[in-house]
Amino acid sequence: xIRNSAKALIxxxxxxxxxxxxxxxxxxxxxxxxxxQNPYETMEEAVVREVREETGLRVExxxxxxxxxxxxxxxxxxxxxxQYCHRCMxxxxxxxxxxxxxxxxxxxxxxTGSAWFTPQEAEALPLVPLQLRGRVAQVLxxxxxxxxxxxxxxxxxx
Length: 158
What we know:
Order of helices and strands: EEEEHEHEEHEHE
Shape: globular
Structural class: alpha/beta
Low-confidence stretches: none
Number of strands: 9
Oligomer: single chain
Largest sheet: 9 strands, mixed
Number of helices: 4
Distance between the termini: 18 Å
Strand content: 35-45%
């Protein structure tokens, strides 16, 4: 099964919003807000819904920014979390709509919070998707979508 995910680059006042997470072994990492696409939902609808669920923010897509693929090869992880072991991540640049911030109705798995970082700070963080590490500014400044590539990962991250 291949899971489509909609991820958001949320910029406000020159800073990027990232969700912080802790793995089951206590390792900190950061992820773009977003998650899986529901049946019959467009990618744009998915990114708007997922951002609202995880951050309480109302957003609208500005442009499609990047695409990457992640395939986990660890057999134990494939057995325990098959729906997360092959993902295509569609990354959108979104803007925050005016109005109050709502409640986080469905935080992401292992999410501990959210924080704002400059793009330069974000590039130095343990960021996922891995293909975005060191390339945040490139994606933000590109004239069109950036293909970040496909990777195979063996480590267990859940």
